Amino acid sequence: MNIKELLDCDWSPGLEEYIVTMRGEITKIDNHFGWYHISCNACSKKIEAENGVYNCHICNKECKFPLLKYKIHLKVKDKTAESSVVLFNPVAEKLLDTSAHKLLNRLSLDNNDVPIQIQSLCKKEFIFKLKLNNYNLQEGLENFTISKVFVPVENLEIQYQSRKDKKGKSLLEDENEPKEQKTKRLIKKRLLMSHSITWKTLMKINMSMMVLRIEREET
Predict the structure, then answer these.
(1) Please, is 130 exposed, middle or buried when counting C-beta atoms within 10 Å of its C-beta (0-12, 13-18, 19+)?
(2) Boundaries of each Replication factor A C-terminal domain copy (predicted)?
């Protein structure tokens, strides 16, 4: 699915979740909302400090060990359109090969810029597996959640297309091949595949070929 198709889709009202795959290039890191958030270590929901204390309104208690997690907003484009997607902690950690906590510790206290490790994702092309939820399906909003990221392997794609083209060519040749010639070829193929063949079996095959030839001449 390309981005234009994704944006133009009319989703069924009964859908609560849907998975799609698209390929696109990351064009921008949208840092308006930052690149990380603080979450509760029990329920993983976002929490904010109140008078220096992190309270979780879901768990209804103080969170003494809050966790730092990725939440990176990206702009992605292909040949058809551009859209916004969100890279959450589990996928981001695998992609960047480091945790948000470690990455933040490398920055100075007054540095609010996006780390260079995250900026390096720009101009790179990936295959994104997106998990669409009510936010996207019912409200028609973007910020699609990325559930998996794959690096395109061009050589594999070329090999796959080449095999696909050869298979199509082979099928076309089979369709255009004369019936008698095709029958002979298949019989010879079976002979080659056989490890041993008796004289009687060979005679039966020859007789079968003669019968086919006579039937064709009569018609």
Answers:
(1) buried
(2) 21-137
